[in-house]
Amino acid sequence: MTVRDPELLLELRDEPELLAVADALSDILNARDVAPRKRTRTWLAAAVAGAVAIGAIAGALLLAGNRVEPRLVDRALAAVGDAPVLHVVTRQQYPSETTLIELSTGRRIVEQRVSRTEIWFDKERSLEHTITHTTGQATQNLLLTPEGVTSESGPVWTCARIAAHPLEATKAGVSCNLSGDNGTTPRHVPEPPPALDPALAGFVDGYREALASGAARKIGEGTVEGQHVYWLEFRLPDRYRAPDEPPADLREQVAVSTATYRPLVVRMITNGSRGDYDVLEIGTVTRAEADFSEPKLVPPEHPTSTSVRVTGQLDSAEAAQALGTRPLWLGPEFQGLKLAAVQKQEVTTGYGRDSGVPPRVTTVISLIYGEVRRRHPTEGSLVITESTTPIAIWGTLPTSVPDGYLGINGLRIGHLRVGEVNVELRRNSIGSGVDPALVAAAQTLRAVPAG
């Protein structure tokens, strides 16, 4: 070896063939300095050859430098595999919509919710199976096929299914027409191909294609959970843009481990806002290994409708009889609001006509602090609804709230349990965040005095 330049040696440390060329060129150039004058023509030819060699080495070095990205993309593509079904498991953490408030101290806790999503995606056969587990919620199970969509609640009404079963769709109260008219003659409308959750669409559907086409580009390096990563980025098509709207800035950024070349984090960027997913698993599997089984039917837990009917006015004794236990109250007056009415109500909870679950009717009592007009609370009134079974008057099931805590959801409705009584607190007012009046009311609740 005659190459002495340490920078060149460093650049060519992984390219033995280029190092050999550089070595030979060095010998040629050194020979020029000691050659006799009479060999000018030979020297000139060698110099020309040397210049060509220098250009070749410079070009080779440039290609070697640019080859980092294709090499990265090739390895990332190989890490995913080339079997027909893409299998992805992701995890996302985000703040819960419910704020827990410790009644003894007023301390607020916003718990983290975790969603784990597992997807099998067979683009060629238009099959997609998604199973999502979220803390505090029932499992969601969705299978999309060319024949239709099925969930844990049974067949899903799509426009194709409505067209094929117009009479049943009309009976179920669903339609794809603004007029609501489904007609009476069955028609065949093909199901659209599976469309993934927009936050995952570019990654699951486009990651391999972006790698294979070269659309993915390296934008930097970093560290994710202690692992060194390359960051790849590729743009997503704006499929939902109206003709008169400007294109949205839709991008996917993927953190790829430099050790395994597997993606660790997917970052969805939409017009500057971002959402991250952890990638727990990704790879391709055979069709025999994939899970495209039909979801098992599960009795519905979440209501699709609620209606409330006032059935009478009560005194304290009648309220206890209707509730089955001693009711709770805030005294005759609370924060300047007088107890205006104690009502007996019937709450009818529906689960959808196709669910097979009949509507449930629950008797509750409602204490209204403020003012009542035509048996309804006016704006600013505080309403306390009580029952011995959990209810969802406003279409939202109460989350599991620990004893001694008040849970306030995104609709500013509070839930808590006092003994055997389930309590819902709400204000007829517009606002955002936690209403201090609900916290104070939860801390003040006590049993109505006997008699």
Unreliable spans are 1-68
How many H/I helical runs?
9
Distance between the termini: 106 Å
Average per-residue pLDDT, rounded, comes to 79
Question: And the CATH topology of the largest domain?
Answer: outer membrane lipoprotein receptor (LolB), chain A
Q: Could you say what the CATH architecture of the largest domain is? A: Clam
The secondary-structure class comes to: alpha+beta
Share in β-strands: 35-45%
Shape: globular
Radius of gyration: 34 Å
Q: What's the CATH first level of the largest domain?
A: Mainly Beta
Helix content class: 10-25%
Largest sheet geometry: 19 strands, antiparallel
The count of DSSP E runs of length 2 or more, i.e. the number of strands, is 23
Report on this model:
The protein is an alpha+beta fold and 451 residues long. The chain has three domains: 6-66; 85-96 and 111-285, outer membrane lipoprotein receptor (LolB), chain A (Clam), CATH 2.50.20; 305-447, no CATH class. Helix content is 25%, strand content 36%. It has nine helices and 23 strands. It has helices at residues 6-11, 16-34, 40-66, 68-80, 159-164, 166-172, 198-213, 316-323, 436-444; strands at residues 85-102, 108-122, 127-134, 140-145, 148-151, 154-155, 217-224, 227-235, 250-257, 263-270, 273-285, 305-313, 328-329, 333-334, 337-350, 360-369, 372-373, 376-377, 382-387, 405-408, 414-418, 421-427, 446-447. The strands form three sheets. It has a 19-stranded antiparallel β-sheet that branches. A hairpin with a 5-residue loop joins β9 (250-257) and β10. α2 (16-34) runs antiparallel to α3 (40-66). The longest helix is centred in the N-terminal third of the chain and has 27 residues, at 40-66. The radius of gyration is 34 Å and the shape is globular. It starts with 5 loop residues before the first helix and ends with a strand. The model is unreliable at 1-68 (pLDDT under 50).
